Here is the input.
Amino acid sequence: MHGRDSSRTLAGGTRINPAPRLVGLGTAFPPFRVSQGEALRFLLKRFPVSPAARTLHARVFAHESVETRRLAVDRLAEVADRDLDRTHRRFEKAAVDLSGRSLAAALRRGGRSPRQIDFLAAATCTGYLCPGLAPLTADRAGLRTDVRLADLVGMGCGAALPALRAAADFCRAHPGALAAVVCTEICSAAFFPGEAPDLVVSNALFGDGSAAALVSDRGSGPRFVDEESLTLPAARDDLRFVTDGGRLRNVLSPRVPVLAARATRTVLNKILRRQHVSPDAVSRWVLHAGGARVLDALEKSLGLAPDDLAASRAILRRHGNLSSPSVLVALAESLARRPARPRERAFLASFGAGFSAHGLLLEFS
Here is the structure.
């Protein structure tokens, strides 16, 4: 591993390792941008639907919560390509490119080099790769050949925080190490046309993008204070991918906003109780931008002010729901809007397939 052992020893020989910190953050998006109006006109022209479905499409796509999205295509017609092999190739090319770009951005902002990375976890759910996204990203980014690699597949929108936990655990076990996380989704590769309400919402909501984070016990950045996860097996079918005709099809239950709100509140309360603090101790809220109804439910359940979710709502408006990168992109947006104050606490939450919810409490120096 790179760097010296940064742990310290107390009287009696007890070793105390410094807490892992988030020491770098980067994002990347494809250049192709589409407005909701353009997307709606394309879908209704390419896929004729019933009058009732046309009305539903118009209402959903007109919602002010999403204005534009970025898609990993050269032209919009590629989204509707029914050739599975071409779709997979598009997923692989775009996922590896965006992952390399977001990781490079995190390294620049963290003042680190690719060969300093000792561990890389990569998360995606919108396509399958073997070898996985982690080794392909390591090759693209120029990481060492002895870097530890881990692929997190199938965790859906919630994957960023479990990936960060894996990186933090690696740093706890290897003082002085540098761990990296990359979350990348090509949601356009999982496009599935149809008149079902959950398909209409999905096709109006999801966009493509990537986010990367660096974790180490050396350097400046917010420290990891506490983490918590919750899985609700009884709600497993409320949010998931299924295959239909060999293609991924999103399943999005109307219960998702309530499930997300309740599960996130449970996760938050467990962390706050362990830390012996009240919700007032948190002054920065960074929540996965799952959709307007989801953010509304979270705001109400957690007793937040409208401004508390400004960063998450801004990401949703500009990019749509990015799935796993969303919470990290929202964190970057939050910090760009307002630099952190000393001792400020931030609560990050993500949730997704499973049904699962995850929370992370950070404290800035």
Observations:
- The chain has two domains: 21-216, 223-363.
